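Hi P.,

Sorry for the delay on this. The queue was packed all week, but I finally got your sequence through. Input first:
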Amino acid sequence: MTSPNEETARGPLPATRRSHVLSALDREGAVRVTDLMADLGVSAVTVRRDLELLEREGSLRRVHGGAVATEDGAEPDDPVATAPIGVLVPSVYYYWPTVVRAMEAEARRRGHRLVLRGSSYDATDELVTLRRMVEREGMAGLIIAPRTDSPHFRELVHWLARSEVPHVLVEREASLAPQGDVLESVVTNRALGTLMAVRHLIGLGHRRLGLVLSERSPRSASDSDDWQTACAELGAAPEHCWTRSIPDSRSPDCPAAVADLLRAMRQAGTTALLVHSDPEALAIVQQAQAQGLAVPRDFSVIAYDDEVAGLASPALTAVRPPRQVVGEAAVDLLSRRLDDPGRPVHRLSLSPQLVLRESTDRPPAQPDPVD
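Then the structure:
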C-alpha cells in the first residue's frame, strides 16, 4: 500500500492537485472521486482530503462520490448529487426522530437525498421493503435498523452481503455465519450505559436491584445479558439482581403488569430499578405514586433513552444515547463507503451519558423481604 509520503513524492503536489480539481469543475461543473484518482494517480483518501480543504475554502460543495461547483450547484440529472439513500427504521415516533433528523442534516451537507421508510416493531419481513427500495426505487445505499429477533433477520443479513449495495446498520450489529464477516454498523454502547447505571445505584448504597424490559424490545436478550454482567462486575449478588419484562406502556395489559411488578419489588426488598425505556419508567413511577409510594424515597429509578425522562415528576435520572451523533455517523460511514467501496469495514460504538436528576438517592432502611 502506498504511504502518504510516497504518494506525495510520486504524484502532483497538493497545490497542483487542487488546481486540477478546480479546472475540472470549471469545465464540467462536477467531479468524481474515482475520476480524480485516475487523473492524478493518488488514493481516494488524498482526493477526499483535497475536496474537504477546497470545500472549507468555499471553492466547491462535496456530494457523495465527488463534488460540485458552488456557483451552479449540481445539475438535476447529475447521478452523483441525486442518487438517493434509503433509510429504514422501526419507528418514526419514539427514539428515531432525533436520529433521522441528524441523518437528514448530515445528508444535506454531503449532497445526499434521503428516502425514509418506517417498518414497525411488529414487522415480519423487512426484506420485502428493502428489495423494493433497491430494485424499484434505485437506492444507492441503505441505512437500516432491522429487527434482530425476526425469523427473517439472517436472510436479510445474507441478502445485504450478496447485494453489493453499500449499507450501514444503525443501533444494530450483525455478522455472517459461519464466515464471521461483519457488517458495517453504528451503535450505542448499551452495555456501557447499563454499567454506568448499575455503578451509580451501587455507589448510592443499593444492593437489591431490578431490570425492567419492554416485551416489544428486540434488544431485551442482550440488555439482560449486559445487566447480569454489570451486576457481577460491580459485586452485586446475583440473587438480588433480577430481570422482568412488562408489556409496552400503551398496552391495556401494562397497568396489571406494573402492579405485579411493584408487589414483586416489595417481596424482594428491591430498592432500585433500571427501566427500558422512558414510557415504561413513567408508568411504573405513576402507579407507584397512586399506591402512596414516592420516588426516590421508597425506591430509585433510572430510565433508559432519555426521550421524555426529564419531563416526569420527579425528573428521572436516565441513560442518554448519543442519538444525534448516531445519525450523523451512519450517514458519514455510508458516504465514505460510497466514495471508497474497498475501504475496511467499520463498526462504531458510541458512548452514552448518564444524566443525573431527581429519581435516584440513597436507599431507605433496607426492609426485610416479604415471605
